[in-house]
Amino acid sequence: MKKILLSILLTIAFPMLAFAYSDVSDSTSYKIAIDSISTKGIVSGYADGTFRPNAKINRAEFTKIVVGAALSYNSAQDPSGYDIYSNQGLTFSDMEPKAWYIPYLRKAVENDIISGYLDGTFKPAQTINLVEATKILVNSFKIDTIQPTGNEWYSKYLETLLGQKVIPDSFHSLTQTVTRGEMAEMVWRIMENKTDQPAATLAKLQNPCNPLGENVPSNIDMAKVRATWLKWYNDARAAAGLYAYTYNDQLNRSAITWSETKKAQGSMDHKRSPGDAYYDYNKITAWFADLGLVFKNVYRVTHTENIGWGVYHCSKADCTDDLINAIRTTFDFYMAEKGTASHAHYDSVMNAYFKEIGLGIAIDQASGKYYLTTHYGTEIISNPLPICSQP
């Protein structure tokens, strides 16, 4: 009786704890899903206390999480007794020896969840796109598929999950890469049989567009922030007899993407991968190309990137002016380089060959910082997917 009473008291005193990732707030997309599957032990965050909901997830990570959730499998509790990290039973040619994901790939193969690529690889480090994810989800959770209208290899998986409203409306194309937040949302919808959430449609996915990706708090009027930033630029350029810059939504998207990436990493720089030089033009060119952006070469000028970060705290009903005042310090820093030995930021603001710019700001409310990126381009000569209309 005492043990039962003690258990009741402990339950009252220590209810199930919600996960408190430093980068997941009430305004974060898919917070309920992230908290739910974290509480169940399906996923965990990083050592720095973040979840990184906007970070892309690779094929190995996605397989581990989904297979673990669907089969209630945890490699740390594998009772098989043999070396679960050996390549035994697996024929993929690109697995690292003793890699952490091997037990989950084996479970996936044994349960007919994955088959890999025709060339015999699995590509564990490659980001996973929507249609690849649908196959793993359907096969892992043994979901009965419908008779699809399409005849592609993925049609039955995709249309089945669309019919059950598993795929959130943040997806705008069939090949869009999956983020950690979207992964959490889809797993949660399947496990909890959630069919009442905003969902993607086949028509939308078959007429693809790229989302802008803006994720600022609702108490900020980003249109006003962006207009103010552009006015500062064009006032300075007019005083120097230069034509005005205009915004390009493709550059807004690329700038937002970089700011969100660096926010997830917790630091602001130009490095596209570990070990890079601080500013590697060729790496940045390739990064733009991955987003579908190629720029006209005008007297050896194509594109550049200015970055900055600063302190930002605001919890008022309208924080627009507070953010504007905060980012003014970054603009003033750029302009203060005039006449100094290091003037790359100033030169970007006043360049005679760039025509269009994009501004991206990511706000980390937990750490009280903003991460700001400005992208500059001569002229986009590629044919990127259009930017989706914003609601």
Q: How would you describe this protein?
A:
With 391 residues, this protein is α+β, with helices and mostly antiparallel strands. Helix content is 38%, strand content 7%. Strands 1-3-4-2 form a four-stranded mixed sheet, sandwiched between helices. β3 and β4 form a beta hairpin. The longest helix has 18 residues. The radius of gyration is 24 Å and the shape is elongated. The N terminus is likely disordered.
Structural class: alpha+beta
Round the mean pLDDT to the nearest integer and report it. Answer: 90
* Percent range of helical residues: 25-40%
Residue stretches low in confidence (pLDDT < 50, at least 5 long) are: 1-17
Number of helices: 13
Strand portion: 5-15%
What order do the strands of the largest sheet run in, or round the barrel if closed?
A: 1-3-4-2
Count of DSSP E strands? 4
Rough outline: elongated
Q: Cα distance, first to last residue?
A: 58 Å
Pattern of helices and strands:
HHHHHHHHHEHHEHHEE
> Major sheet, described briefly?
4 strands, mixed
